[in-house]
Amino acid sequence: MPLIQCENLTMSYENRNAVENVSFSIEPGDYLCIVGENGSGKSTLLKGLLGLMRPKNGKILFGDGLTQTSIGYLPQQTVVQRDFPASVQEVVISGCLHQKGFGPFYKPSQRTAANAAMEKLNITSLRKKSYRALSGGQQQRVLLARALCATDKLLLLDEPVTGLDPVVTSDLYALLKQLNQEGVAIVMVSHDINCSIHNARKILHMNTGVLFFGSVEAYRKSALCEKFLGRDAH
Hints:
Layout: E1 4-13, E2 16-26, E3 31-35, H1 42-50, E4 57-62, E5 72-74, H2 79-82, H3 88-93, H4 97-100, H5 108-120, H6 136-148, E6 154-158, H7 166-181, E7 185-189, H8 193-199, E8 202-207, E9 209-215, H9 216-220, H10 223-229
Parallel strand pairs: 3-7, 3-8, 5-6, 6-7
Antiparallel strand pairs: 1-2, 1-4, 8-9
Helix pairs in contact: 5-6
């Protein structure tokens, strides 16, 4: 059963349809890149999946025990967020907030999960450092660890490599590939179609509606891919 099934989904933003009649599914273990030009509805679609925006029409169905609060999310960072005055450990464990309930303290199991996420992403040595003092690549590792505290099923990432240098970008893609191989489904919004087809297994190409949804192999052979990438598509 799919983790998420979207059926004829339409979402409005500022009195216009930002997502229109979109249908696709996310299976366990998928690695899906959502691509398209600016204003094509990519980020709005993610907000719908997370319950941050309500659909105007259509359905978002969840399966395999997944809920909107058990999705890990790595949003686009703003300048204000990069200057957040908290320790790495505090940022990471905040990914357990939905599980914490109304109590004032985190449970031992949640602290264990945060420690495991930091170890997995090789940032344990940074746990007491201020988040605002880290490099861009280190901050993305911290936010990815935070997202992992919320899920072992699905990560949603919105332009996660924006502003990172090529070496750090390659490192982040390698981390995502490793997590995917360990069974975590990855859904990533990206403006870089070329990198998307080299890292993902499925492509959702949007322009408000769905222009393409399917395997990377089928996308490479499509006229749409050739239009955007030319001979590089092959």
